[in-house]
Design a protein that fits this description.
2 copies of one chain form a homodimer. Chain A is α/β, with parallel strands linked by helices and 523 residues long. Chain A is built from 20 helices and 20 strands. In chain A, helix 3 packs across helix 14. The interface between A and B is large, with 96 and 96 residues. Chains A, B: GO terms for molecular function: acetolactate synthase activity; flavin adenine dinucleotide binding; thiamine pyrophosphate binding. Chains A, B: Keywords: Thiamine pyrophosphate. Chains A, B: This is Acetolactate synthase-1/2/3 large subunit. Chains A, B: It comes from Nitrospirillum amazonense.
Chain lengths: 523, 523
């Protein structure tokens, strides 16, 4: 390190490093170059380049979900932030801590309305728990401290930090002192509240425990299983968990359904106990269907997402005097007797073949319902693994989230289980995956249509074969060749249309040290 | 057409059609399906699907620049809008009329904070002159009328129209009546103001006419040339025109430089007459350099961008009694004596070979400085053509703008002259170009680096070879294979590294009825 004088950019990075941040997902421009240069001077923060900002923000989300730690992003003014917003929306819904650094013009240049000037605050607010404008070298540490504290609070949050070039360039007196680390952690559920819930539960049957947030960790699930066994309750997970452990000897979780009619049927007349989950609402509003899917008199809240659901469940189990349960019989994936053949593939075939071969400790980034639905129904049969889902519905989350997860968990196999339509929104992720040589196996369900839109049109008794409805829901003509795209970005790839080829491809992919893409042709 | 009852979506589209709108760039989701179905019932609006929203908004911008008419977009809630914001930022800076339709949840579903709920207004405001929430069937026509009027006002503008599903689904009494068309057009510069400018000009030397907006049309330039000849003034165009006619017998225009030092040198002590252009400001703020590049006492405004610069120039010329000038000698592109060879290519080689072969009436979408800078210096030598540039600096504008231009000008050859870094942000455009079989020749300057960032680092005496500065400005390792990406999206492609191969590829591309991509390897 040859730097002898420090500037605002150094101080920002030193403060981040002092708070344990070790990675920065960047797509910089001219206004971020002082920060780029400073990354060369401040050791310990790994720079990862994305060719598009949605790759960076989605990777920061995935990194946070797997590591529990915030990552930095580095984006270029309002338009760079704009390109990253969709995945910040998902990060917000996942309650992922992200410190989202957005460079800006020098403060004295802003009044001149140069081409790249825009209202960054207005872009940032919908996804950010706080938007902080760095003011000057003297205030910088306190402002960053605030940013890290909010991002790593009981609810993880996106905090957008706007870094003007003059503040980054300004000399500061010395290197940043160590920042007091904030003890991260969720708020405790008061004992009295747990006692009240226990009393209320004793009078209600049937019961469902709906698990979200940290209730979906291994320890949370085991405590939930104890409570459920004492109450003869069913265990459900929220529809779109940020991250959930599944398989192996973990309890089998039903997934909360998607369409309101299905949720109503699934829940029946049960009382729903919320454990780190929100009360079920319909994903979209449908005429004639309720938005809130459980009447409030059938909802009991044990813990909010910002509260410590694990401790609450363990306290509740202890209060009920439920002994630790024998773990579920560890699932032993069985290679199906149908080991191949050249017939066409179904989504369930793909999921079964994946589950049979999924390495212990794998992390799945799941986007799209074609494979995602069947996978979550059958994941209990796999070796123990973790699954991340699209929490906010902003598509283009799967590939970037897989990228961030692989960087957060070196040594783990990451599988990006992905629909072809949604994969397009952040297809540039493939380049970052190739560049960083990440062990990501990408499985593209290539049905060349927006399947969910065709399903919705059918549900509404509308045609899917009109000139326009056809044109706007089919992705054929031309069909995207995913193996060519992968090759273009430096990821080896193969296309399969039969079960035998799929099984071979999965084995080949899991043998690769780096990435591999499998285009699975589906009807 | 089998529809016998009309709903809000029909009415919206009927109103758009009545106002002359004939195209909709769409990336719909569940909340937009009523509008998708309605497009099947209301004839005359061509649906064009983009695989990413930035393709749709950039195409709407390009369509507007070439046709002068607004296009519709159709985007999916806040996250879909978010993905389209960067190119709406460019559209705003281009003063392009765009009616940006964003679907939303049913109004009665919004309070339940379903996953895709977000603050759409906050996302939309920075790029929109107005954000209009459609309220109900009864108000819809008046609200749309307002949207079209604002979008097509003297300054073209982006208007965001938020369309909740319940308002789109609601039955309306009848088909929409024809809307009174607003006479589009710019405001006239008052004669007295023109007289005052004429008087002021008579006392100032040297003079520069800085042309922007409609002063860059053919008629505007010819009138400007008359004025310039009477005043011995130089003719400059703004740095980033939305669209400018060049070549053939048009006057030769200098382009306003990029870096402030270069602009100060270029302008010298001249008085700058603004004709549809804003006073020059530095693109970024640099310590020690001014933001405003001309002192206010050396600026005279003939016309603002929202005013009729053509009429103002013609009135001024008439007042000065300048006769019509003989047209410039029409440039006859000369095939350079160096017709090939196998040596490495330079950007100037690429530009020269393109200019020599550029068909009359072509439209160039230009993004990135590697080829863009040399092209705009030498374009006067080409056959008459039009050039669109990146008006707002939000990168990822070139390919979508080319897409929209090709749809607005059937029969014209469109060239997307594109740097490789910026092409990545909306690479999905290639699929829409292939699907619509558009005559777009894409030329990718493949130098595998963010050249502008390396230039800026050098200007700041910073290293470009540090671990991080190297990593974040070089796009090698792996190098993107653009021919593979093009093939993946259905666009035929070739890679060239010598002048002879480039010339053959250009001729092959211009012979194609549909698209063709040329990856030009540059050092």
């Amino acid at each position: 390190m040859t730097t002898t004088t420090w500037n605002g950019a150094h101080r920002l990075l030193q403060a981040a490093r002092a708070r344990g941040i070790d990675i920065c997902f960047a797509n910089p421009g001219t206004t971020e170059l002082t920060l780029v240069s400073a990354l060369d001077d401040v050791p310990g923060i790994r720079p990862v380049l994305g060719l598009f900002e949605g790759v960076c923000t989605g990777a920061a989300d995935g990194y946070a979900r797997v590591s529990g730690k915030p990552a930095l992003t580095l984006l270029h003014l309002g338009p760079g932030l704009a390109n990253g917003l969709a995945n910040l929306h998902n990060a917000r819904r996942a309650r992922s801590p992200v410190v989202n650094i957005v460079g800006d013009h020098a403060t004295w240049h802003l009044p001149f309305d140069a081409p790249l000037t825009s209202d960054i605050d207005s872009f940032a607010k919908p996804v950010s728990k706080a938007v902080i404008h760095l003011r000057d070298g003297a205030s910088l540490l306190a402002q960053l401290q605030e940013a890290f504290d909010i991002a790593s609070g009981p609810n993880g949050a996106v905090v957008t930090v706007i870094a003007p070039t003059d503040v980054m360039d300004a000399k500061v007196a010395d290197a940043a002192p160590a920042l007091p680390a904030q003890a991260p952690g969720k708020d405790a559920v008061p004992d009295g509240d747990i006692a009240a819930v226990a009393a209320a539960l004793s009078r209600k049957r049937p019961l469902i425990l709906l698990l979200g947030a940290d209730a979906l960790t291994e320890r949370g699930q085991r405590a939930a299983a104890r409570v459920a066994s004492a109450l003869s309750a069913r265990l459900l997970m929220e529809s779109y968990p940020a991250i959930v452990s599944l398989g192996g000897d973990l309890p089998r979780l039903e997934r909360l359904a998607y369409f309101p009619q299905d949720v109503l049927k699934q829940l029946g007349d049960a009382t729903v106990v919320l454990v780190g989950a929100k009360a079920p609402v319909s994903y979209f509003g449908y005429e004639g269907q309720p938005s809130a899917l459980v009447p409030s008199d059938r909802v009991i809240e044990l813990s909010r997402p910002d509260q410590d659901s694990v401790a609450a469940l363990e306290t509740l189990a202890a209060r009920m005097e439920v002994p630790a349960l024998a773990a579920e019989t560890a699932a032993t994936p069985v290679v199906p007797s149908d080991t191949g053949g050249a017939g066409p593939l179904s989504p369930v075939d793909v999921v079964d073949d994946l589950i049979d071969r999924l390495p212990e400790g794998a992390i799945i980034s799941l986007e799209g319902s074609t494979l995602g639905g069947p996978f979550l129904q059958r994941a209990y049969r796999a070796r123990k693994h973790r699954v991340m889902t699209n929490t906010g519905g902003a598509i283009g989350q799967g590939l970037p989230c897989a990228t961030g997860a692989a960087l957060a968990a070196p040594g783990a196999r990451v599988v990006s289980l992905q629909s072809d339509g949604s994969a397009q929104y952040t297809v540039q992720s493939l380049w970052t995956i190739a560049r960083e040589k990440l062990p990501v196996t990408v499985i593209i369900a290539a049905n060349h249509r927006y399947g969910i839109l065709q399903t919705e049109l059918k549900r509404a008794d509308a045609s899917i074969d009109g000139d326009v409805t056809g044109r706007l829901t089919r992705l054929d003509n031309p069909r995207v060749d995913w193996t060519a795209l992968a090759q273009g970005y430096g990821v080896p790839a193969i296309r399969v249309a039969s079960r035998r080829d799929l099984q071979q491809a999965l084995e080949q992919g899991f043998d690769e040290e780096g990435p591999f893409l499998i285009q699975v042709d589906l009807p």
